[in-house]
């Protein structure tokens, strides 16, 4: 025989429990209006960084393309015009494309890059309507905003392992 | 103008205003339920339509109206179409007799004040099940049929206990007039929920079952019956069933307020009589919150246990409660 008072008490306890939850902080993130919090080392969309003097870091070596396990990166390098160099080295990335639909955001390109040019940022909201537009070229990857760029350089200076020196420096000489 | 015609026009205007108010109340009850349920589940509920999602009911209505209205080929077209109308009609008709408060001269604020108001309300509640039963049957589909059968069986089982729990109040008040019951409570300075605590609890349980609310929402148990009796309905006809269901929820809360919680009785009513409307609405809202709270807390009952609970627990308890009340009133030697 079920004890009716025990059963009724169970309902009372249940109601008290749900009432406690009514006043708890809500776990909803009001996403597009409120930024989604990432872990610090979240790997999202790539960017191609520049030195503070405006030179591109990428030297067109294609190491990132070789490292890429998803074959998402296409790099075509070209010789720098000595009168008007794009990067401090002999060569620069003439074309640089990442197919965001192939990319698995593993970060190996970042690890392979000898000049810290390609970096994965925390940005992730890149949904679009055509496959074509999701193949990002240099127009979308190279950082143009000087302020963001400065921050990026400061951050990467902090993040970079001091034991590993980049292959080029703004002066054009290997350090 | 002929006085009968004039009276009819006045009543028609009153009824129109009341229907507008009740349907608006339904729309915001739906939003209230979605919000409160979300808060119970650590979500925020609708927030995008207007400030705090206040325009959500309008958006829902527009969406529902724009949907295609389907009738299954095998369905009985006439009954299929008339069922939702029947459901919402009986739900709205109940409001004809509910006194929302008291005028300064002591008369009730209601469209009609028959001296058998509570019987009228019970009758409307009982007819309301025809909408569900016919809708489920006319759909000619297995899930609606099962939902309709469950709904009918559930209503018959729980209406008995509900009636008996109400009779206790009627014996104490000595009248079946809704306004008289409210006046009896303010005259005795006690809400009938206190002497009739068992009756009140039985009424709340049976009211939850009658309105097909969780944990007694077996007629529309999603996990078993898709959507129960309104599985085949779409567009406005589905919306009409929805209106009927939520209006019924408000109705049973209003009845509970009138019978057990003193209607418009509350502080300062003797100073400002119109405050009685406010107290009435506050009590109804509190009961509605209670229904949502129950839904957020309790899991659905198994069908055989639902039936066993109704017949083997609620009904005997209600009978014993009624006998004790009757004996008490008889021994005290007066009817009110």
Q: Summed up, what is this model?
A:
Chain A has 175 residues and is of the alpha+beta class. Chain A has helices at 4-22, 63-67, 108-112, 138-141, 146-159, and strands spanning 46-48, 73-79, 91-99, 118-120, 135-136. Chain B is mainly alpha-helical and 336 residues long.
Entry keywords:
heterodimer, A: 175 residues, alpha+beta, Alpha-Beta Plaits, three-stranded antiparallel β-sheet, two-stranded antiparallel ribbon, 27% helix, elongated, B: 336 residues, mainly alpha, 11 helices, globular
Structural commentary:
- The complex is a heterodimer of chains A (175) and B (336).
- Chain A is of the alpha+beta class.
- Chain A has 5 helices and 5 strands, in the order αβαββαββαα.
- In chain A, the strands form 2 sheets. Chain A has a 3-stranded antiparallel beta sheet with strand order 2-3-5. In chain A, strands 1-4 form a two-stranded antiparallel ribbon.
- Chain A is elongated, with a radius of gyration of 25 Å.
- The model of chain A has no long low-confidence stretch (mean pLDDT 80).
- By secondary structure, chain B is mainly α.
- In chain B, 68% of the residues lie in helices and 0% in strands.
């Amino acid at each position: 025989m079920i004890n009716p008072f025990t059963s009724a008490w169970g309902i009372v306890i249940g109601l008290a429990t749900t009432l406690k939850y009514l006043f708890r902080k809500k776990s909803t993130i009001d996403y597009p209006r409120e930024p989604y919090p990432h872990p610090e080392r979240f790997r999202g969309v790539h960017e191609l960084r520049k030195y503070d003097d405006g030179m591109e870091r990428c030297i067109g070596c294609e190491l990132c393309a070789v490292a890429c396990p998803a074959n998402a990166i296409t790099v075509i390098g070209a010789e720098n015009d000595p009168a008007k160099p794009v990067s401090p080295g002999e060569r620069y990335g003439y074309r640089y494309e990442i197919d965001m639909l192939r990319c698995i955001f593993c970060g190996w390109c970042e690890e392979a890059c000898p000049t810290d040019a390609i970096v994965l940022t925390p940005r992730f909201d890149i949904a679009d309507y055509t496959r074509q537009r999701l193949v990002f070229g240099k127009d979308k990857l190279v950082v143009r905003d000087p302020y963001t760029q400065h921050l990026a350089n400061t951050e990467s200076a902090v993040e970079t392992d001091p034991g590993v020196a980049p292959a080029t420096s703004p002066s054009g000489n290997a350090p | 103008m002929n006085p009968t015609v004039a009276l009819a026009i006045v009543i028609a205007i009153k009824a129109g205003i009341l229907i507008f108010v009740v349907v608006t109340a339904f729309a915001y009850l739906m939003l209230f339920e979605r919000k409160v349920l979300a808060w119970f589940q650590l979500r925020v509920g609708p927030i995008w339509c207007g400030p705090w999602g206040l325009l959500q009911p309008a958006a829902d209505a527009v969406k529902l109206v724009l949907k295609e209205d389907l009738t299954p080929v095998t369905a009985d077209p006439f009954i299929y179409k008339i069922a939702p109308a029947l459901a919402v009609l009986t739900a709205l008709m109940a409001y004809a007799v509910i006194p929302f408060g008291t005028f300064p001269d002591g008369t009730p604020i209601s469209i009609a004040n028959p001296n058998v108001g509570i019987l009228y309300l019970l009758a409307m509640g009982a007819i309301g099940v025809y909408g569900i039963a016919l809708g489920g049957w006319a759909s000619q589909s297995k899930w609606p049929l099962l939902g309709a059968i469950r709904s009918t069986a559930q209503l018959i089982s729980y209406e008995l206990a509900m009636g008996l729990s109400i009779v206790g109040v009627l014996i104490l008040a000595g009248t079946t007039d809704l306004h008289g019951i409210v006046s009896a409570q303010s005259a005795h300075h006690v809400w009938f929920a206190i002497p009739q605590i068992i009756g009140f609890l039985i009424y709340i349980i049976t009211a939850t079952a009658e309105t097909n609310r969780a944990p007694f929402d077996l007629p529309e148990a999603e996990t078993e019956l898709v959507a129960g009796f309104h599985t085949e309905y779409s567009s406005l006809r589905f919306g009409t069933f929805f209106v009927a269901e939520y209006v019924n929820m408000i109705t049973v809360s209003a009845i509970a307020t009138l019978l057990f919680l003193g209607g418009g009785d509350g502080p300062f009513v003797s100073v400002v009589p119109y405050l009685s409307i406010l107290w009435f609405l506050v009590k109804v809202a509190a009961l509605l919150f209670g229904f949502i709270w129950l839904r957020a807390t309790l899991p659905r009952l198994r069908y055989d246990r639902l039936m066993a609970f109704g017949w083997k627990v609620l009904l005997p308890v209600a009978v014993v409660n009624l006998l004790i009340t009757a004996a008490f009133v008889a021994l005290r030697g007066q009817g009110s």
